[in-house]
Amino acid sequence: MAKEGVKKMLALSFAVALVIDIAFPLAVAFYLWRRLGVSWRFFLFGALIFAVFQLFTRVPAVAVLQSALGVTQWPAEAVWAWLFGLSLTAGLVEEIGRWVGYRWLFKPAERTWDNALMYGAGHGGLESILLVGLLGVLPSLINVLVFSQTPPDRLSVPPEAAAQIQQLLTLSWWLPLLGGFERIAAVIFHIGMSVVALQVLTNSRMVWLWLQWPCTPWSTSLRWGRTGSGGQLPARSSSGPSPCWPSGSSSACVQRYEPLREADELPDASCVIDYANHCAGDCGNMLSRPQFPDVFRGSRGRNGEQRTQSLP
């Protein structure tokens, strides 16, 4: 009876994770549409870019290359090196894809802060909904529901598949919930990176694109956890503003964006990574504010009226 209870909790945990994977990015997009008046068209732009640059190109290429090289037979050290290389290629492909979307899908007047938020929600949303939710969590949920009632050996399942299913059924019931939390962090990260990618065109500086590239594997390692850190993000200092950004504002997030308004001096790479790390923290709180810093001008509401974008 105890094992049956654990399997029920495991199935429930997978179900909750599936709801998070699908509902969270859609809820963020709905909020941006209602609160900021951003068109759903930019959500579709983000989803299209992710599909073209990841689902239709990089993901199949990685699958073919991995099979041809026999990566599953490699020693653990080589596999870790392979995974690190995959994360680097993911960062390169995704950041170039974001730039291509801004360059060819957005009109110059549409390259605004608000639209960048929706663009990032679409980019991370398709990954969360399709690649993780429907193609990852949903099959696991179905396997738990089916094989918790009927052992794999009764259904003539191949030995290798039966071993994988047995391993799935012995997972701790709370582990799928960590995957749901990781998706929340990933979607917020995609939104942050889409805002940074906009600087390539608004400030005409390609260096922003190359500064973004190492952020993707770096954030992935943080979301999945690191040895010695327990998978926690580094604590943000509360002793004062970041030394990377000028003071003069009560909002730490505004301080990080002040250099973008001036466009006279480019922050160093450590400051950009600092932004990527904390965009899920104090900068994410700006989504609940009715007004935004006038970093990007020309934002309009749902009815076409010009919105004021003054500093909080």
Q: How are the SSEs placed, and which strands pair?
A:
Elements lengths: L1 H35 L4 H29 L6 H29 L8 H35 L11 H11 L5 H23 L1 H4 L4 H6 L2 H10 L27 H11 L6 H10 L34
Helix pairs in contact: 1-4, 1-6, 2-3, 2-4, 3-9, 4-6, 6-9
Offer a few descriptive terms.
single chain; mainly alpha; 0% strand; 312 residues; 11 helices
Give start-end ranges of low-pLDDT stretches: 221-312
Helicity, in percent?
A: 55-70%
Q: Report strand %.
A: under 5%
> What do the pLDDT scores average to?
74
Total count of helical runs of at least 4 residues: 11
Q: Give, in order, the helices and strands.
A: HHHHHHHHHHH
Give the termini distance in whole angstroms. Answer: 57 Å
The coarse overall form would be: globular
Strand count: 0
Structural class: mainly alpha
The quaternary organization reads as single chain
- Major sheet, described briefly? none
What does the radius of gyration come to? 21 Å
Number of domains: 1
Structural notes for this entry:
With 312 residues, the chain is mostly helical. The chain has one domain (2-288). Helices cover 65% and strands 0% of the residues. It contains eleven helices and no strands. The chain has helices at residues 2-36, 41-69, 76-104, 113-147, 159-169, 175-197, 199-202, 207-212, 215-224, 252-262, 269-278. Helix 2 packs antiparallel against helix 3 and helix 6 (175-197) runs antiparallel to helix 9 (215-224). The radius of gyration is 21 Å and the shape is globular.
